[in-house]
Write the structure tokens for this entry.
Amino acid sequence: MDKNAIKELVSSLGEEKVVTDKEIVRLYSKESSGLSGNAIAVLFPESAEEVSRIASIAYRLEIPIYPQGSSSSLSGNAFPSKMGVIVSFERMNKVKNVSLIDSVAIVEPGVRIEELNFMLEEKGYMFPIDPASQSIATIGGAINNGAGGLRGAKYGTMKDWVNGLEVVIPDENGTRLSLGCLTIKCRHGYDLVRLIIGSEGTLALVVGAALRIVPIPERVVTILSFFNRLEDLLNAFVEIKESGVQPYIAEFMDKKTVELAAKGVDISFSPNGNMLLISIDTTAESSGRVMNWLVDTMKRHNAIEIQSALMQQEAEEKGLFKIRRNLFSAQSRLGKKEGRPSRVFIEDIVVPPSKIPAAVSKLREIGEKYGFIVSLGGHIGDGNIHPSVVYDPEDEEEKKKVYRWFEEVMEVSLELGGSISAEHGIGTMKKGGMKMEFSEKSSEKAIDIMREIKAVFDPKCILNPGKVFDC
Ligand SMILES: Cc1cc2nc3c(=O)[nH]c(=O)nc-3n(C[C@H](O)[C@H](O)[C@H](O)COP(=O)(O)OP(=O)(O)OC[C@H]3O[C@@H](n4cnc5c(N)ncnc54)[C@H](O)[C@@H]3O)c2cc1C
């Protein structure tokens, strides 16, 4: 079957778009979570029409399709979990149109978020969803993972920034559908756009998107503070929120993670303690007043080191974001044993921001119970915490212990009225967690409904099978 499939795909797309070289296929079969699989080929379509042809062939021959942006997923969302073809969108990477009057950018799925923002910046605009991985994360991947980012405190996640989608569904004809509108306001029946956002490539292949864009704020004041006690940091954050201010960015990292993340980083201050990074968007006239208020608030909560910048460029020059940008690599190194293989397990829970202090205290207790060095950090502004541990994947006992820790972490989110995933999604790793969440809410039927929806879009279950749930 594999040979026939390859033959058909080559005759439909051309040889240069069907790669079967084992080393290349192996490379594309890995994702950032550390999970990997295998595939018969990687396909590189260059147009919606070619994606449609792939979907039609795959439907007829019943070949699993694994859509892929940059494979930077962290929950087992993008890797091929059984034999099939990987569809890489990296050659569909054009920004087709930007209209400031309509506040919209029309893009292909392989455009990287950072590239789009470089382009928009020249016009004084931005696309506000900025995952820490934005230099590699693609629009198609971010849409399908329902990604968020540092500015999530103010701007939410992908579901709030997509007006319309062009998609291909896996049926006999590889049918193309235009869903949603160019405009924000748009009412034409059920909202299929938002159904596809966060569906992790299990419902449709996204071949184009109309994204909302906004002007870059006139001024962004930033303050980076360090605290001996994590409780003081949390109280400072609570006071900011209680005063009615909605930060543009609100991020935190605990002391151990800061120590690692700061290693080798070129900055003129000495980071020490638990870190709170706050940015607030404002105007030239009020930036000084906002800054003074922030400094006062941090001091009142016993900050031991405060760095500040009145403008975004100044914040970059002083390196105020550098430590936060190193969170992932710091989390990957924490607790690593010399000479042993290691894998990082980055959790992604969310609680209402008012419950962050309670969540942090429970997460510390659980870490101590299992004897793990747990790194705590994340997007405190929207209640999204990424507790992480590093473990030895070849040590079966340790692996079991990590899975028990993982389950208890998800339970904490549910006890506090949150959810088991904020932005990384379900993939293969959180299928159990999703069941636990719906069962906790006495809503198991929701998963049956999702399964039925999946069958309508993808009756042969060939689109990213095994992700979110089994069909
Ligand atoms: C260092 C690091 C930091 C991160 N920080 C964040 C963060 O701050 N916020 C956050 O939300 N995430 C974060 N992530 C996770 C990840 O980077 C994001 O989810 C990102 O948006 C994924 O983009 P991608 O192009 O790599 O997608 P991929 O991983 O390739 O794919 C993601 C999902 O979308 C599907 N897919 C991809 N393209 C298409 C398409 N065109 N049509 C249909 N389905 C498609 C895939 O099958 C998969 O299910 C981080 C990851 C790393 C490694």
Notes: The pocket of flavin-adenine dinucleotide is lined by residues 31-32, 67-74, 77-78, 89, 109, 131-133, 137-138, 140-142, 144-145, 147-149, 200-201, 205-206, 328, 423-424, 464 (CB under 6 Å). The mean pLDDT is 95. The chain has four domains: 2-90, 95-215, 219-327, 335-456.
